[in-house]
Amino acid sequence: TPAEGGGFFLGKEELVILNSWVQEFFYNLNDSIKAFFILLVTDFFVGFHSTRGWELVIRW
Hints:
- By secondary structure, this protein is mostly helical.
- It has one domain (2-59).
- It contains 3 helices and no strands.
- It has helices at residues 12-27, 31-46, 51-59.
- The longest helix has 16 residues, at 12-27.
- The protein is elongated.
- The chain starts with 11 loop residues before the first helix and ends with a helix.
């Protein structure tokens, strides 16, 4: 149940599977793509959106 901390929509087992899938996906990326994703996510949380970053996303 959500009150047990397993998640609002997903149960604990589903979150474990999703977490392992995301980790494996991220682990298999090359270092340049990892760095780009880290910068992009940081961009969203900080609130600054660089024009160059969005140009790279659109081209990709």
